[in-house]
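Example S7 (structure tokens).
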């Protein structure tokens, strides 16, 4: 049984600590947020993630998982320490390492023997050396630094951790490499052993590539709309190429959001600029994504007219994708703000993300839980997130409730032929 401390129990840290406890390790989750730790000790989980609440409560009850604000105690009691604190973007796109620095200082001051310190946070290239220097300033004994980036998808993070595509371990220490390889042995996954800087770059490169796929297919969708092609068939044809593959991010929509892709694309652009590398592709990925987030407004206006003052518009979906309550960088919020700026009356619905959205939108919109009630008297319905609940709606009942049968589908969730046959005025993406 390994003794593990996880510093930072946000999204990544909480999943990491809980899953390692589930694998039979003794894990202490640490955070400076007293309210968060107090709630976790009561079984109250701060994020929505499928299966996580049950695992937290199970392992807390078994004694494998505990939570504290005392980093000194947690470090002293552990042999392996994960740093999973937030790394928010700065205005220039660079990464704010304030929390990483604070964590490293606290860890260094608490060290009482050899430890393996593992960076789990997404950090700029060279952060491993940065953390090493800070700990050396506070602790004169032996320790090792490892870069072990996370590849957790919101909505399937527990499954991703327990059954990963790959595990990346970056370190120059044979001793630390052996310890971390043995720690991950129960996952029975492909392990990529490399140096620290390569491991740090793998994370950025992976997310930036996926974001590039999304912006690429959205640009192809825009061409489809101009020439009368069908993006759904284009994507299908592309995925059948083994060099591209069935899991490629080739679903057209209104752009990517969330906590990872926007931040990591900006971060990699900044890293490139700092090292004198021109990365025009990623600049274009960002520009394309911003334009795609704004692309529904002209479609809405083509149905309702340029003047949206007083129009009743319903937006289904606030989270940046289904199965999460995360609204960070959500394309939906861009659409909502565009409508509010034009004096439309906006009603919003989301199965899970409403409370998070309220922190941003406040009382500028009407919040509704029932899908049919939300469109009563609506001039137009906007689909901004492809929740299964939206796909399963009774279209005939939907039509009866709406004032005008206008739908702008930013996620292509409906069958175009079927919905037009029912009498809807329907616009989607790239079809």
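Recovered sequence:
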């Amino acid at each position: 049984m390994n003794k593990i401390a996880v510093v930072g129990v946000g999204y990544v840290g909480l999943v990491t600590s809980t899953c390692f406890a589930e694998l039979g390790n003794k894990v202490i989750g640490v955070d400076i947020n007293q309210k968060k730790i107090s709630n976790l000790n009561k079984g109250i989980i701060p994020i929505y993630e499928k299966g996580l609440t049950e695992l937290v409560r199970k392992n807390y009850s078994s004694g494998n998982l505990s939570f504290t604000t005392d980093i000194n105690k947690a470090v002293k009691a552990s042999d392996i320490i994960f740093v999973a604190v937030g790394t928010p973007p700065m205005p220039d796109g660079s990464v704010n390492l304030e929390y990483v620095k604070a964590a490293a200082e606290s860890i260094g001051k608490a060290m009482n023997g050899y430890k393996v310190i593992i960076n789990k946070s997404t950090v700029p290239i060279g952060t491993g050396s940065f953390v090493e220097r800070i700990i050396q300033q506070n602790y004169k004994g032996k320790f090792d630094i490892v870069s072990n980036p996370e590849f957790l998808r919101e909505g399937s993070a527990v499954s991703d951790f327990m059954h990963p595509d790959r595990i990346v371990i970056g370190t120059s220490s044979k001793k630390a490499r052996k310890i971390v390889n043995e720690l991950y042995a129960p996952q029975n996954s492909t392990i990529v052993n490399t140096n620290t800087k390569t491991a740090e770059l793998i994370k950025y490169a992976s997310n930036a590539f996926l974001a590039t796929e999304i912006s690429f297919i959205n640009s192809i969708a825009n061409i489809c709309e101009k020439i009368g092609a069908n993006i759904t068939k284009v994507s299908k044809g592309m995925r059948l190429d083994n060099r591209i593959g069935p899991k490629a991010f080739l679903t057209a929509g209104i752009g990517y959001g969330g906590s990872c892709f926007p931040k990591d694309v900006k971060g990699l652009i900044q890293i490139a600029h700092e090292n004198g590398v021109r990365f025009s592709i990623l600049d274009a990925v960002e520009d394309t994504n911003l334009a795609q987030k704004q692309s529904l407004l002209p479609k809405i206006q083509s149905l309702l007219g340029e003047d949206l003052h007083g129009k009743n518009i319903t937006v289904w979906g606030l989270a940046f994708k289904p199965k999460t309550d995360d609204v960070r960088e959500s394309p939906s919020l861009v659409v909502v703000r565009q409508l509010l700026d034009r004096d439309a009356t906006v009603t919003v619905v989301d199965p899970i993300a409403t409370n998070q959205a309220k922190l941003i939108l406040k009382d500028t919109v009407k919040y509704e839980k029932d899908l049919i009630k939300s469109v009563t008297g609506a001039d137009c319905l906007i689909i901004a997130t492809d929740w299964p609940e939206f796909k399963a709606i009774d279209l005939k009942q939907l039509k009866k409730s709406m004032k005008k049968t206008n739908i702008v589908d930013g996620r292509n969730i409906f069958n175009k032929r079927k919905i037009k046959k029912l009498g809807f005025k329907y616009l989607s993406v790239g079809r």
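Notes on this example. The first strand starts at residue 3 and ends at 7.
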